[in-house]
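haha ok so turns out i had the wrong file open the whole time. this is the CORRECT one, sorry everyone. sequence first:
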Amino acid sequence: MDTLEDLGRHIEVAEDLQSVVRTMKAISAVGIRRHEAAERAIRHYLETVEMGLQVVLREGPPGALIPEAGGIEEVGVVLIGSEIGLCGGFNERLVSFALDRLTQGGIGVGARRLLMIGSRAEASWAAAGGEPSAHLQEAPATVEALAGTVDDVLTRLDLWREEGVSHLVLFHQHMGGHGTSAPTEVRLLPIDPDWLAALRAHRWPSRRLPVCAGPVGTVTSNLVRQVLFARVFAAILQSRAAEHAERLTAMQAAERSIGDKIDELRKTHQLLRQEVITAELLDIIGGYEAASQRPEEDGAAEA
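then structure:
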């Protein structure tokens, strides 16, 4: 049975843990807001790039942007997970969703190249029976570090494209309802022809129609890379916001659990303290009674 000192230490440790949980809650709440603000900014950037593509499409047919008919030989897969834990089943659900989608599409182990972002996601992928990732990229810890991560990812995708990989797909989590996340799939390449057709038919916002300055092929290639940059950037931002949301939910549950445990420990501490005080009072009373009876016994012995 724990002593008063033991219970006091347990309460102190639980209160320290509760303070850590509250700090993590605050960090996650701030992280959600920062990543949401950054996502709005990258959305505006993507709209600007799309306007540039609209100009290029007005110059002529999409050409290389439209995928050619034929089978898929190899697919580049990008999966965005987390670098740290304490976010529930964030990585496990994403990995399960990605494997199911790849299986449904007939994309087996030998027909895909894998780029994993986040060591926790790689561990979940291996646990689910997936092949070891050919490339592992550390997930960015801050919004400021995200641009470097995206550049590294695009460099890898450029190498794949040079080696003949024309189909690129990305899996990530985005924020769902009630503090949960939902996995989603984004096709990076080839670009959706329906999306290109809608973009080409979109009404220009002013009466002055711009023209393409420079070779159409070069401008198109640069714009496509910027579209990839913006989409990968937005996907990582959404994934990070969803990760923070999952961690915030987990920390809220942990805070309630710790609070209940602290209340239980305090009640036990109070009951044990009362028992100790009662025992001490009984000892004092017993000692007093023994001391009061001793003179009478001494007098009877002398008589």
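The chain has a mean pLDDT of 85.
again sry for the mixup
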